[in-house]
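In the lab's daily routine, each protein ends up as an entry in a very long ledger. A line of letters takes care of the sequence, but it says nothing directly about the fold. The fold becomes a row of whole numbers, each drawn from a learned catalogue of backbone shapes. The protein below has been through that process, and both of its lines are reproduced in full:
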Amino acid sequence: MNVLSSPVVAMAGVSLYVGLYHLLIFLRRPQNRTDLTFALLCFSTVFYDAFCVGLYNASTVAEGAYWQRAQLIAMAFFVPAFLWFVSEYTRQKPGMIVYSFLAYYLLAAIVQLVDRSNLTWLMDRPSIKQVSLPFDLSITYNEVTFGPFTAIQSLVGVFASTYILILAVRYFRNGNKKEAMPLILALSLMYAAAASDTLVGNGIYHFIYLMEYAFLGVIMLMAFSISNMVLDAVTARDALNHSEERFRSLVETINDWMWEVDANGIYTYASPKVRDLLGYEPEEILGRTPFDFMPAEEAERVNALFQEYLRNRKPITQLENIVQHKDGRLVTMDTNGVPFFDGHGNLAGYRGIDRDITERRQVEKNAQQREAYLRAILDNIPFWLWLKDPESRFLAVNKPMAQDSGFEHPEVLVGKTDFDVTTPELAASYQRDDRLVIESHKQKIVEESIIKNGVETWAETFKFPIFDSQGNVIGTTGFARDITERKQVELEREELIASLESKNAELERFTYTVSHDLKSPLVTINGFLGFLEKDARAGDMEKLKNDFNRIREAVEKMRNLLSDLLELSRIGRVVNTSTTVSFRDLTDDALALVHGQLEESAVRVVIQPGLPQVFGDRQRLTEVLQNLIENAAKYMGSQTDPCIQIGQQGEEEDKPIFYVKDNGIGIAPEFHERIFGLFNKLDTQSDGTGIGLALVKRIVEIHGGRIWVESEAGKGATFNFTLPPG
């Protein structure tokens, strides 16, 4: 055997060993077809190397042609094995190009086996090459020239190698640099060996053919890469086992139940925690659906939601559902899960966790009930209740406060301030109190105004600071209760006290006046009784007659005083039925009663047309007008054109204001209040008792009105008074 054949025999042995090793690996783990395709690649290299040994030792051209044909048949298996191996190695599914190469090389192997024509080899054209090598070595290649089919087969090999290089580069660009580099280097060796063989075959330089050495380089490079991949896989498997161990520990210690279902919702995995949550062993869960453990209505509801998740491939997020425990009790679960897919992008199922939230839901339910009870209490307390943050923004209010402030629901006020609820003045006052409470850390109780249903009312307000666990003020709270009625009672009491004090003062003045005014006639009577006795003894009939007249006048004056006092006492006690009556009719009634006095004084009366109706005691109201008209006519003075005007101008508290105006002597301002007092007469020479205007004031006030005078001395007088509308 030629000495140069020894290295090739050694290379064949190495390739055979590597091939058998990876074939055994494949038999132990058939799921990894990379080892199988690499073993086939090694075996095809073994055959190629063996046929090279035959060519090196061929002594005739015919013998050389035989081994050349065997080499091409081996190459017909080597290239498809290489393509298949690269597809598995790069995890790229073989396409039409790969299958086309496989079909062609199957055809090439058959043609090389059966054809003996010039199609494959030109037997009549020897191609003997004598190659001189260093160290006085030489080798003779007894070869024949390629036929057209064999030449094409060699060219297709170049195309196949180029396609493999493209796959390797694509694999490199996809981020698999470590795995792609050995493959690219191996292809580089093959291209270099092919170029060398071409140069040797064309006599460019003298050296042995290097293709078998290149094949060994490919085998060694890829064996090294695969061994690294195996080592990485072992490392990854160890890491995975460690991770799985940690995951298993985590799964078995957390309080949540982890599960997996397929695309039909059937459990394919259940962690041991299901035993604690539902009372079932994991084996009892597998093969069943979640809906098998739910009440009928709940199963229907959740299944509909699950189908929706499946259609949209959406994650399951916080799906609350009711599951029946093995002992029959109901458990509330919070379910979360994500979809997972197979290698073709098809939905394979869902993985997720279930958490028992029964206790939490019960706590929330109890809290909601307590909140509902508290809200019911707060919303039915007839007080305003609120909670504010340090900036005086409302955090919560009760229903009475919201509704009295014009808001339908309390929640509408959350985030608002007093300026959104009431007038700017009141809001500013409230916020000043809030700041005072926060700064002083003390409560404040104040009586203040509030706007309730659009009406300003009185409230008693209690304001308190709110403290956190460190004693810092984090807001204010308080309540306000309506004390308008109490305030009204207090005001009425104050008014009553004032009225009683006024009446007491009036009574004192009345007592003084009565005692003074009644004393004068009695003194007169007593004095003239003495004169009467003296004149009787003297028999002076003229003086007796004068004495009797003076006594009679005193008695008449006393009778008038007593009559007016009786009339005044009856005001407010003896009341006729109140009716609606035209003020013009009242005026006409009064004018009829004083007609003679007006005629005698030639007083002209002007009545405003269209006077409104009033409501009251017709007789008493007529007395008011009668007294005012009589007074106006009495105090005309020397007026050449005495005139009295009667009419209405404006309103006061929805009550019409009437007036009786004259152009008489007038009343000085300092006497405006005095004239309405009992027995107060500005003209001491008049024949009246001075009780008329006191009667007028009493009647007007009994009807809920008030009376006042506008006048100056010498400029006439206007008596204004209000009466309830009819």
Observations:
- The chain has a mean pLDDT of 84.
- The first strand starts at residue 121 and ends at 133.
- The first helix runs from residue 5 to 28.
- The chain has 19 helices and 19 strands.
